[in-house]
Amino acid sequence: AQTVTQSQPEMSVQEAETVTLSCTYDTSESNYYLFWYKQPPSRQMILVIRQEAYKQQNATENRFSVNFQKAAKSFSLKISDSQLGDTAMYFCAFVDGGATNKLIFGTGTLLAVQP
Amino acid sequence: DGGITQSPKYLFRKEGQNVTLSCEQNLNHDAMYWYRQDPGQGLRLIYYSQIVNDFQKGDIAEGYSVSREKKESFPLTVTSAQKNPTAFYLCASNDWGDTEAFFGQGTRLTVV
Q1: A101 in contact with B, Cβ within 8 Å
Q2: What is the rounded CA–CA span in Å between residue A82 and residue B75?
Q3: Chain B residues touching residue A107 (CB < 8 angstroms)
Q4: CA triplet B81, B84, B88: central angle to 5 degrees?
Q5: Which residue from B48, B50, B100 is facing A50, i.e. has the nearest CB?
Q6: How confident is the model over A50-107, as pLDDT tens digits?
């Protein structure tokens, strides 16, 4: 079965510093996609960044970047220059590229950015 | 504007009643999903549908039912068999695999 694991229930970081959120996944698929979603207090889910498994280059979106280690099935999110608005729940998500197209999420990491 | 709409935002249910949560999308997405979110927990998949008139159980389908009669609509019924239905429910849609999922704003269901 495909699973997504986030081992850090809560994290805290000072404003302007860098923080890394961890995610591991398990799948037998070779073609799949990985995502990080942000859920602020409004509870609206927002896509932060995505990574295609067939791409070796790590995805980057402004202050957000990932460290994708396919062999280790690891997909961590790095937030640079943390801002107060980054305070949110962050979810790692996986969808296979095959027939099932099932989108599954980890349990989330609650990130608090301290002033 | 394209998007995904859930209604109502808040819903109260008496024990023993069935209630239906609405989810509509105008993004022309094939796949739609229902998730349940409990306080401090992640999103657990209830049901998903990849095409009209077809849907699959997720990890916690017991006590729930869905239908997919139209591409744009994927309503979720919380039946009286669901023993602990109080939760936040999120609906999402996407195209196959490589596109981001779009989410509704959620429905907060409370059993009174």
Answers
A1: yes
A2: 38
A3: 41-42
A4: 115
A5: B100
A6: 999 888 899 999 999 999 999 999 999 999 999 999 999 999 998 876 666 778 899 9
